[in-house]
Amino acid sequence: MGAIRLEKVRKAFGEAVIIPELDLDIKDGEFVVFVGPSGCGKSTLLRLIAGLEDVTSGDITIDGTNATELPPAKRRLAMVFQSYALYPHMSVRKNIAFPLKMAGMDKAEIDKRVSNAAKILNLDNYIDRRPGQLSGGQRQRVAIGRAIVREPAAFLFDEPLSNLDAALRVGMRLEISELHQRLKTTMIYVTHDQVEAMTMADKIVVLHAGHIEQVGSPLELYSRPRNTFVAGFIGSPKMNLLTGAEAKKHDAATIGVRPEHIALSTSEGMWKGTVKVSEHLGSDTFLHVETALHPEPLTVRADGEFPVHYGDTVYLTPQADKIHRFDDKGLAIR
Amino acid sequence: MATTHTKSAARAMMAPSVIALLIWMAVPLAMTLYYSTLGYSLYNPISTPFVGFDNYSYFLSDPTFSAALVNTLILVVGVLCITVGGGILVALLLDQDFYGVNVVRLLVIAPFFVMPTVAALVWKNMMMNPVYGVIGQFLSSIGLQPIDWMTEVPLLSIIIIVAWQWLPFATLILLTALQSLSSDQKEAAEMDGAGALSIFWYITLPHMSRAITVVILIQTIFLLSIFAEILVTTNGGPGSQSTNLTYLVYQQAISFGDVGAASAGGIVAVILANIVAIFLVRLIGKNLDA
User: Fold this and answer.
1) Is residue B116 within 8 Å of residue B165, measured between CB atoms?
2) Up-side HSE of residue A231: CA atoms within 13 Å toward CB?
3) N or C: which end of chain A has fewer CB atoms below 10 A?
4) pLDDT tens, A53-65?
5) A67 within 8 A of A54, measured Cβ to Cβ
6) Where are the domains of chain A?
7) Which residue range or ranges hold the ABC transporter domain (chain A) (predicted)?
8) In chain B, where are the structural domains located?
9) Which residues on chain A are in Cβ contact (under 8 Å) with B196?
10) Domain B56-289, CATH
11) Which residues pair with residue A303 across a beta bridge?
């Protein structure tokens, strides 16, 4: 089926090493998300798996067969591009049928699969339109349709939602998760948005400068980040990372506390601070609190209607068991 | 540009050039129409009697006319086939990344800057001449009989010369079209299992269709009035084998001194060009809408 294994995969463009040696195991049927800041090599990694780029060294195994030297079409993978990459001069039907036509499948079977895919993706009403006449979300669905008709070993998604508006993004996120539940096919999904990663993944791979920083389930990364990078990257708003005297008290070079693990009070607490900007989300309010502990203000989650204003004094108390400790190399101390 | 004021200002500003253009176009056309109804010979310019449609019936019934019409079409279609086909191939080549691609691009575009008369003379004397020409020399050197291009295949010779001049134009337009094709689409097709040929046929060619349309439309307009190349090489001959409509009109006016018939021929050429243009726009112009 769709187990993918990377062994000592390395990619360099001339002198520039994009991905230093890297190992990764993706099990059949898993929804794996590659997440990381721009330029971390996540798209390159996906393109290496797809075969659109050649590995400099190392092996890629798909379904137990070595695919390192195989051309993209022979790897039985389907890819959804950020730009959708639909063929503008073909109707939706022809777009979806294209991979089947290239495979030389007979007409009746193509029609059956295309109409099936169109039904799954609610594209029935647009089947004879051109991509130019569709909205962003519909184009995205056509691109997914083109991928699923091939019944590939795995789907590759390259930041598929970043061209959609916020509301549509949430909808498509659900649809893709739903699709994964239904098809049970391996999916590899690249994004820079940690919310997408957290909400969709079975397994998240956090990448930074071509290195894998940590691999784990969303909650594992959230509750047990391996280092300060993962701690700062996963979770929204970001974890507060403190160095200096306060960290020393915990025998660490750096300590981290998430905004949601700090108790707020207007009368008493461990750390005294001054409220700066408040961000009201309705259900929650995120307060930026200036303290003597750290030059940057700390972010604290408060109740939606917590009654403080700019300049008020508040007291913060971190939950003792939710303090993450990191050594001077940034690695978690457990 | 939305208010009434700016609109009328814009009209006033544009008026001089619009009027100048109108005069530029309308006066010669009107005079040609007028002359085409006169029995106007340069050998006897004093008497120019009104002859009605006689000039037209004379011109259209001239056996050279039908030959010239066929030649014109062969010339246009031949050059179009070579330039569009060749242009696509050269554009595909130039789209590749190889050492010195910029210099090669410049070289490919160079023929466009050579004057038609010069190009034709160079081809006639240095390439196609059976004794001194490069092609003749080459054929002799491998033991074949050199071809006397200008007398044996005059129309083909002219097609080759004109195609050589227009190939850069087609290449340039098609290359820009080719470069605007997103690499995502090619990669998507590659992942979909399309080979190089399928990618070309299903992705690249449709993407270029609009540019190809533009090339065909623009070139047709210019190719219908090819003249200099014929004048300096074959003079329309041998016989009328390489005479096109433009050259026939020139012959009527200058060689035979018959301004009336030439004017009638000019009007016929205008009408034919318009028919071709309408057909072309109907046929392939819809490509430009999408």
Assistant:
1) yes
2) 24
3) C
4) 888 888 899 888 8
5) no
6) 4-230, 239-326
7) 4-234
8) 56-289
9) none
10) 1.10.3720.10
11) A284
